[in-house]
Amino acid sequence: FLVASKALLDHNPEPSEHEIRHWLAGNLCRCTGYDKIVRAVLEAAQTVRASA
To answer: Is-annotated flag, keyword Protease (predicted)?
Structure first.
């Protein structure tokens, strides 16, 4: 998840939830339903934009 998320944020620092889910589609997670992961990527994107 981390590598895919980093690649996404390098490609697009303002991704939509749909775009995040698309970029993470190749990773399997049975424990969270991806909601917490998607929220974390959205928060990371906000942090990246704020520090730019």
So the answer is: no
